[in-house]
Amino acid sequence: MTLSKPKPRCQALAGLAISALALGHPLPALAQLANEAPQVTDDVAFTGENNDILVTATREGYAVANTSSGTKTDTPVIDIPQSISVLTAQQIEDQAIRSIGDLVRMVPGVSPGQGEGNRDQITLRGNNSTADFFTDGLRDDVQQYRSFYNVERVEVLKGSNAMIFGRGGGGGVVNRILKSPDASGQFGQLNGSIDSFGAWFGTLDVNVPIGEGAAFRINGQYEELDNHRQSFQGHRWAVNPTLAFTLGSSRILIGYEHVEDQRIVDRGVPSLNNRPLDGFDETLFGVLADNHTGFNGDAIRARSIHELSGSLTLSTSFLYGDYDKYYSNVFPTSAVRTVGGTRQLDVQAYQDFTQRETLIGQANLTWRTNIGGMDHVLLIGAEGTRQDGTSERINGYFGPTGTGSANRTQTVDLAERMVIPAPRFVAGPAGNSNRAASVTLDQVSVYAQDQISLTEQLQLIAGLRYDRFSLDVGNVFTGTRFSRTDELWSPRAGLLFKPDENSSLYASWSRSYLPQSGDQFSSLDATLVTLEPEKFDNYEIGAKWNVTPSLFLTAAAYVLDRSNSRAAGPVPGTIVLTGRQRTKGVELALTGRILPHWQISAGYGYTDAEVLDGDTAGRRVAQVPRHSASLWNRYEVSHELAVGLGVVHQARYFANISNTVIVPAFTRVDAALFLRLSESIDAQLNVENLLGADYYSAAHSDQNIMPGAPTNVRLTVKFAF
User: Fold this and answer.
1) Based on C-alpha coordinates, what's the Rg of the chain?
2) TonB-dependent receptor plug domain spans which residues (predicted)?
3) Which residues are bridge partners to 298 per DSSP?
């Protein structure tokens, strides 16, 4: 059965119209109110929240001093009572990081998942997610592989984040900050790169000022995909033009992005004797003609900042996204076993189709004032989200006839090149366990937050968010519909003590909720509508120290409790109730310049995640290594020469909540060489896995474990103009 795609164009047009009105007409009454209020006595002039709309100075290095992601206000990282990791565009380029999975290896407390070979999937403080991704602070939850061609930096905020980001975010969120037009001058850069597996890419970044207070920037990429695995290939391309300009005291940015991604779906290797199958690091356990995925996305983004007065700022954000995603796969569902002297395993197959349109509007009013002798940064905001989509799962069957459960599994012999019969994909209700749904999600949110300087050394942050979350899911086959509405209150509170201007100690608590329907909200039934939302409580203490203006040391210890939770079961497609889950951990990080010519990014995470009750009480949470560590150094030997050296370590972990299959620990060494060939040409050589470690990089389940790549050499040449 083919699903028709909803096209709420009128909603999109209405959103555009409302956004345009907000952009062009700040409220004069609010400005008058602000002019009558006490003004902040601060030596540093305030120039508006989120100054990334129109850049007027270049940013270099690995360290970031300020962010608006953690509070929705422009705040020094040292003054935010929360663990935050930031990877800048320079560090991402220096390490030749090409995926979210590679990026989070540099983030304490976060580990990559295998994502069934078709999407980004990560575990933050013991909580697995495919949806806790954001772009410029707005939700970016459609399943896909994200790239960094147009990214200024990536911020990973750990702990429960619903007060700032809304539903979910129980273990943390990943927020990509996109590049903005630069009014300071014209520039461009063209990069070309190729690696020893045959993968290559090109990126383009061109910025042009177009009059006083305005600039245009366009970023683009094309990439051919390849790696160490049999038959893996693919390509992706994207383009992102943006325009930024000023109108009086307002700054406005409008951008459009188109993304296409086509690749082979590779879900890795099965297990043998409770360990990943060894000796088949290149084998595709699928059918080349049936293992593929495609993504097509279009997004319109707009942001504005209105300086209503010297102390009052109104900012708005808008997103309209239109996304199509499919994947088809044959994959292992059993461990390898020996039958009559022959090693065998089972496989299954299915296809999945998702179509989604997303409309998000957000407005924030920030007032910096002094009341009763105390400085306040008061935030009041509102957000509305509408998502309309369809999803369909079509199961595959083996044999010439039959659509029963027995036909869904095929036993095959183990071989270096697998010979698997092509499955029959039978759409519609005739197929066993097929499903098709239409989904409508509406969310309306209001929130308030106050950052209070109680004394010169003591600061308090307190906030509360209300979300009205409505989900309606219709079964296309039967015509039945299920709905649920949740009213969620998500608080946060933090107390921060500053012994001096360059250090802080803090304690904080925050809470998030996730309505029961999975993080993609693609299914709802009579059971799910009765279940209470999952709840996440994060308790955290920490310390931050600006060792120098460009070197930051942070430490955090936390307990994160999750209740009313579920997890993927040991049998594919099943769910087990895990009741309560607790994660305890410590995160340490050192980022920035140790010396003028030496930059470092180092981190360590201790993560102890356990199920406390429910069907799997006492088990370890899946895909959570107890210890993880990362280190990257760049040292500039001279103006023309720099070297890089790094290490990534990950302890062993269980691939699934069954706690049966163990993914071994590994340590990988990476290196780089940077050459300035002229004032406009740079060359970069990266070597991943310099010592040739044999390891497994990520897992999705007991039978889907991805072998890590052997030594890979990448050459990149950069042309500036």
Assistant:
1) 25
2) 77-173
3) 258, 322
> How far apart are alpha carbons 183 and 209 in whole angstroms?
5
DSSP state of 40: P
Q: Tokens 């951008």 sit at which residue?
A: 255
Sequential DSSP letters for 651-697? --EESSTT---EEPPEEEEEEEEEEE-SSSEEEEEEEESTT----EE
Q: Are 515 and 535 in contact (CB under 8 A)?
A: no
Tell me, which fold does domain 187-344+361-399+436-720 have in CATH?
Maltoporin; Chain A (2.40.170)
pLDDT in tens, 528-554: 888 889 999 999 999 999 999 999 999
- The H or E element spanning position 15 is helix 9-24
**CA gap 533, 512 in Å, rounded:** 10
- C-alpha–C-alpha distance, residues 73 and 75, integer Å: 6
How many other CB atoms sit within 10 Å of the CB of residue 214? 18
Partners of 271 in the β-ladder: 276
> What does the alpha-carbon distance between residue 510 and residue 491 come to, in Å, rounded to a whole number?
6
DSSP one-letter code for 249: T
Q: What pTM did the predictor assign?
A: 0.92
Question: What CA–CA distance (Å, rounded) separates 206 from 216?
Answer: 8
Query: How far apart (Å, rounded) are the C-alpha atoms in residues 272 and 75?
Result: 51
User: Cβ(218)–Cβ(182) under 8 Å?
Assistant: no
Distance separating alpha carbons of residues 214 and 243, to the nearest angstrom: 8
Cα-based distances in Å from 315 to 13, 143, 312: 20, 28, 10
Does residue 46 carry a pLDDT above 70?
no
The rounded distance, in Å, linking the Cα atoms of 381 and 366 is 9
DSSP-derived secondary structure for 144-196 = -----TTEEEEEEEES--HHHH-S--SSEEEEEEEP--BTT--EEEEEEEEET
Please tell me whether residue 429 adopts helix, strand or coil conformation. coil
Burial class (CB in 10 A: 0-12, 13-18, 19+), 94: buried
Q: Please give the Cα distance from 438 to 5 (Å, whole number).
A: 9
Sheet holding 151-158, edge to edge: 84-88, 151-158, 172-178, 133-135, 138-139
pLDDT in tens, 283-299: 999 999 999 999 999 99
Domain segments of the chain as ranges: 66-178, 187-344+361-399+436-720
Contacts of 9 (CB under 8 A, 6+ apart): none
CA 215 and chain centroid, separation: 28
CATH of 66-178, one of 2.170.130.10, 3.30.428.70, 3.30.565.10, 3.90.76.10: 2.170.130.10
Contacts with 428 (C-beta within 8 Å, 6 or more apart), sequence order: 1, 434, 477
**DSSP state at residue 530:** G
**Please, which pLDDT band fits residue 212 given cuts at 50, 70 and 90?**
confident
Count of other CB atoms within 10 angstroms of residue 532: 11
